[in-house]
Predict the structure of Pilus assembly protein CpaE.
Amino acid sequence: MLSLDLALALRAAGLAWSPRSGDAFMVPGRDLDDHVFVLSDMVVEALHPPDGPPILAFNGTTEWALDSLEADEAVWLPREDQLRTLLGGSFTSLEQVPGPPEGYAVTTPSGRYVDTSADAAYARAVLARLG
C-alpha cells in the first residue's frame, strides 16, 4: 500500500480520483492518520463470540462512523493495478531489484522508477508522467 506522502504527491501532481468500491484512502488531519479506509458497498465485520466460532456480520453501517466526508478531504491510495492502468501503453515492464534494499523497478519509455514496493515504483512512474 502506498505511503500517505506518496499519495499526497500524486494528488498534488493532479491525479484525479473518482471514488469506487474497493478503493483505499486515508483521512489526514483528523487524528485518523494511522487508519486506512476502504470503500465498500456493504460493511462486513468479523465477530469472535467467546462461546462459538467466528461470525461474519453484514452491517449497513458502523456505530462510530463519520456522518459524511467530502471526497477531496480524503487521500486516495491507488492500488498497483490502478497505477498500471494509469500508465497505459507507456508501461514497459516491472522487475524485482535485488537488495539490499530489495525493491521493484517500473520501466517506461521515459525512464526507470525504483522503490521498495511495486505499487510505490508504479506511483513514481505515474508522478513522472503527470509532471
